[in-house]
Specification:
alpha+beta
Length: 171
C-alpha cells in the first residue's frame, strides 16, 4: 500500500450529519499517523480545519491514543463546560454511547462489518460534555456516538501487475 489513508465511507448517527462527523475528525486528531492525516484531509476538503475548531472552541488539551481506552480525545472550552471529541475503535465508544438503542447499535455494527469487510480501517467518533473536577480532571461520562469513517490505503502502482504475474507463474 501507499501508506496514505483516504476517507472512503461515512456513516452518521441519525442525530448528526457528515459535517459534524468531520468536525470531530478534525478536533480529535493528533496529526501524526497516516490515519490522522487522512482524517484531517477529509475534513479540510469540506472546509473544516483543526484550527477553525480550536478557534470556535478553544483547545484545552489533546490526549494521545490510549491503548486501554482505545480512543484519543481532545478537550475544548465551551462556555462553562468542556466539550470532548473522541476518535478510536468503534466498539468501546458505541458500548458507552447513551444515544444508541439496540436498533442503532445493530446498524452501526453492520456498517463496521461492511466497511472492514471492504478492506477499510474503521474509526468511530463520539462526543461528551463535562466539567472540570479538581481531583479527577475531566471525567468523560455521558457519551454520544457521532458516527464512523472508513479509510482506504491505496495500493501502490504496479502491485496488481506483480500479483497477476506471480499468480500466473504459480507462486
Amino acid at each position: 500500500t501507499e501508506g496514505r489513508m483516504e476517507a472512503a465511507e461515512f456513516y452518521t448517527h441519525p442525530d448528526y450529519d457528515t459535517e459534524y462527523l468531520l468536525r470531530a475528525a478534525a478536533a480529535a486528531n493528533n496529526g501524526e499517523s497516516p490515519t490522522d492525516i487522512g482524517l484531517k484531509r477529509a475534513a479540510e476538503r469540506e472546509g473544516i480545519t483543526q484550527d477553525s475548531v480550536d478557534r470556535e472552541e478553544p483547545l484545552i488539551r489533546r490526549d494521545p491514543f490510549d491503548q486501554r481506552k482505545m480512543y484519543t480525545a481532545s478537550f475544548h472550552k465551551n462556555g462553562d463546560a468542556v466539550h470532548v471529541y473522541m476518535a478510536g475503535a468503534p466498539e468501546p465508544l458505541l458500548e458507552r454511547a447513551e444515544n444508541c438503542d439496540g436498533k442503532i447499535r445493530e446498524k452501526v455494527a453492520a456498517k463496521v462489518n461492511k466497511f472492514a469487510g471492504g478492506g477499510l480501517r474503521v474509526i468511530g467518533f463520539a462526543e461528551s460534555q463535562t466539567f472540570l473536577r479538581r481531583r479527577s480532571g475531566f471525567p468523560i461520562e455521558q457519551i454520544s456516538f457521532i458516527g464512523l469513517i472508513g479509510l482506504r490505503d491505496p495500493v501502490r502502482p504496479g502491485v496488481k501487475e506483480a500479483i497477476s504475474k506471480t499468480s500466473k507463474a504459480g507462486i
